[in-house]
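[step 3/7] inverse_fold.run input=structure_tokens len=262
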């Protein structure tokens, strides 16, 4: 795990009063994040975290008079790390699901979509069942993997060949396997798929429109009611003063804004 400090603290807003004493004493908020999925979070050329989640995490920290520290780890390890107090919050495009809400709380801050990424010229994918019999990359613990598993259940019931799901611990490995042709497709968030299709159109293409819209949240331990209140209040302020909207416009993610975000 790698801890990276971002930003300088400023005069604390009223929401800071709700922060845990230990956080006030340290002057930092530690975010767990899987920093390899642009445009949400990735390392730039200077090996510093960048992306929409990073900008939002920085802005929330600044509103609370804190420094943002990002702890980089595989996506599947985010919730265990939070529960073990290795960080204070998760900001890493974590979808809000009933199963997750049984063990953590989440503050909604955006909508997310899923997509299928392929090589240019590959057949369109109208639904996941169209990937029957093909090798498809996915990242362990993600919603894309769950959706591919559900598609396989439907294929099995129909007597058709299942999708050969190839799991990777992070986005980098999955993307590389698609790039070199070891897999036919990659089940990934629409935000990331669109980023790669626009950045490297000779290498990647979206196989269809986005699907499976879902709210996405900042993950917190259930006993952190004060921090929950502070972050919720700060997020509301960022929505009202236009900061939230500017972040999503900067990263071409206006489709993902919450209605309350303007």
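[step 3/7] decode complete -> sequence:
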């Amino acid at each position: 795990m790698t801890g990276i400090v971002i930003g300088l603290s400023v005069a604390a807003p009223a929401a800071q009063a709700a922060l845990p004493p230990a956080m006030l004493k340290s002057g930092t908020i530690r975010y767990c994040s899987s920093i390899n999925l642009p445009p949400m979070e990735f390392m730039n050329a200077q090996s510093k975290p960048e992306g929409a989640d990073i900008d939002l995490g920085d802005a929330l920290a600044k509103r609370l008079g804190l420094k943002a520290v990002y702890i980089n780890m595989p996506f599947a390890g985010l919730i265990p790390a939070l529960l073990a107090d290795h960080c204070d919050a998760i900001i890493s495009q974590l979808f809000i699901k009933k199963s997750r809400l049984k063990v953590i709380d989440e503050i909604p801050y955006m909508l997310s979509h899923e997509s299928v990424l392929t090589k240019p010229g590959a057949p369109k994918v109208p639904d996941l069942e169209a990937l029957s019999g093909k090798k498809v990359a996915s990242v362990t613990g993600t919603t894309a993997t769950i959706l591919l598993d559900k598609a396989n259940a439907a294929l099995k019931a129909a007597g058709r060949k299942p999708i050969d799901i190839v799991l990777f611990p992070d986005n980098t490995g999955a993307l590389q396997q698609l790039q070199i042709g070891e897999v036919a497709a990659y089940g990934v968030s629409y935000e990331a798929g669109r980023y790669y299709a626009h950045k490297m159109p000779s290498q990647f293409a979206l196989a269809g429109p986005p699907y499976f819209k879902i709210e996405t949240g900042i993950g917190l331990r259930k006993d952190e009611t004060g921090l929950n209140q502070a972050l919720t209040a700060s997020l509301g302020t960022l929505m009202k003063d236009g900061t939230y909207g500017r972040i999503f416009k900067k990263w071409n993610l206006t489709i993902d804004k919450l209605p309350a975000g303007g």
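[step 4/7] annotate
The longest helix spans residues 225-240.
The chain has nine helices and twelve strands.
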